[in-house]
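Record 1 of the preview.
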Amino acid sequence: MAEDGDKDVSGDVSKDADKQAGKEAEEHESVWQRMERPARPPRAALTHDRIAEAAVAIADAEGIDAVSMRRLAERLGVATMGLYRYVRGKDEVIELMLDAVIGREAQVELAADWRATLREAAWGLRAVLLRHPWIVRISTWSGPLTPQLVGRLDGLLASLDHLDLDADTRMVVVGTVSAYVNGAVSTDIGLVDRMRNEGVSEMNELRRLYASRMTWLLDSGRYPAFKRYIREGVRKDESEWRFELGLECVLDGIAARLGI
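->
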């Protein structure tokens, strides 16, 4: 018991701790959690879907760096501060963008077997990344916990449920295929960027620009295997063929290693 004149501070300390915990929880709360709260009366004709749609349009046309809160507000015809009633900043805008694109363009269709499901999902993801190259550039495909991204992952994992694999192995299988897609598409996107930077639209034009550099490398005699590929390869420009062969090798490797 506190003596006369003394103040029992235990209650205040407990309240402060609860307040701090509540503040930390609020700071780490996602935009998706806030969206599920009871709706408040709208202050403007604006929605999270409209924000995502406008941001995706900017990024598709000009790249992810062009997406800013100010630019987005201008496109939507609202005050910049008005956006902060819906999102806390660009990171949450990117989450909305990713979720919208995946929900619209990359849903998983469960096929008869795991291999067919992962194969179709890989081709679907490739198409999405080529249409929206900014997704690869921000390197956050597997990061944000958005409903559509987690839903896609859930579907891919579910396609492996009937196999005798533990949970960790199933995640490795899905992650391996996704990593292959991201790597293969990154190469294609990088080539497109190089062509754009050089002001050419055809691979043969790019080869002419780099002919002297290539000749110097090949004539050095230090890279015989690469020289043989350059001289003998006939499918250098067939990106879909390369992707298909690489994907089949990945799936064959998974099947052989795990006996599935």
